[in-house]
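Final report, results section. Input specification for complex C-07:
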Amino acid sequence: MDGESTLSLVLFSGTDDKLTAAAVLAVGAAAMGRPVNVFLQYWALDAFRRDRITRYHGSAPEAGPAGDALLRGSLEGPKHWSETLRQAKDVGDVRIHACALSTELFGISQADLDPLVDDIEGVAAFMGDAADGPITFI
Amino acid sequence: MDGESTLSLVLFSGTDDKLTAAAVLAVGAAAMGRPVNVFLQYWALDAFRRDRITRYHGSAPEAGPAGDALLRGSLEGPKHWSETLRQAKDVGDVRIHACALSTELFGISQADLDPLVDDIEGVAAFMGDAADGPITFI
Amino acid sequence: MDGESTLSLVLFSGTDDKLTAAAVLAVGAAAMGRPVNVFLQYWALDAFRRDRITRYHGSAPEAGPAGDALLRGSLEGPKHWSETLRQAKDVGDVRIHACALSTELFGISQADLDPLVDDIEGVAAFMGDAADGPITFI
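Structure output:
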């Protein structure tokens, strides 16, 4: 595995701290010329809905009220994770897929999702692209 | 790393949404002929107890009451993650190990665990099988 | 990827159960001669502050009061995850980096962190060291 092996990120959690951490890893890998393959499941998929992607989605329970307030302040404007992901797509080969099973569970179609999401795909297609590198679950 | 490198999954969380996500990744990898090496720690190990594996184990905090109800409904019958894992074991090379340290912490033996669990092993044995592929913590 | 590819661990969560799981994976990999590259973000970084690293940081929500009490009892003395990480650094090539963005968010400098932390670095440096192995997010 060299520096160009694909980084596959399974985004499961829907809180803004984890989504920010994921976006930072994606942009870091993309800047190094590494392909990034993102798969959105469950609460992360829900957070990518077009009408609420920049709404506040909360933080991990251990943040507490002070940590939560700190996180919330850090998400303003250009620092929002959705903007970081847009940058990552501009600089590199970053594809974002919605998990087909999760779209069925929530009853959502691609029209409901932010344009950051390229398509809806099944786990077999995701695993095919994940054959040659790390699979990181966030 | 080619398509046949082992996918190692460390299951830590005991909620049914993460266990379902894990089972979907395991069956997707197994269907592609990829060995799957599962290590059960903490709350995930607790969820594999023989007498409560199909009991409802809750969801991530960000699910909220509506998301929780949706998840709960999705787990009925053949769609339960334990059935998906059984399928994964039928179609491919999927081994499920209980972490020795976690079994000691909970005071449980293999007889307490669902037959899906092949054995109890230490972290050195797990790491030995994880030498040639991704290690995904869920 | 052979047994000596670097294991990169992104520590995000600040609860003691996940930090213990991470330390066990780190020491297991280090004992096999595998380099370990740790990146501390968000609530995990906060848990590495010099003045509170051994304080109790809680457990996953699904632990419940009984699980939480069990975990708390397991952290006494030499079994604390910070001691396990110290062992891992003694036996192998384990480097622990604080994420620059997270140190800015919390307003902390290296002097505020436990000596286990080697330095503060950006995501590009972390990704450079993570080029040849798994990236595990905990």
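The two ends of chain C are 21 Å apart (CA to CA). Chain C touches chain B at residues 1-3, 5, 7, 17-18, 21, 24-25, 27-29, 31-32, 34, 60-63, 67, 70-71, 74, 134, 136-138 (CB under 8 Å). This concludes the modelling results for the funded period.
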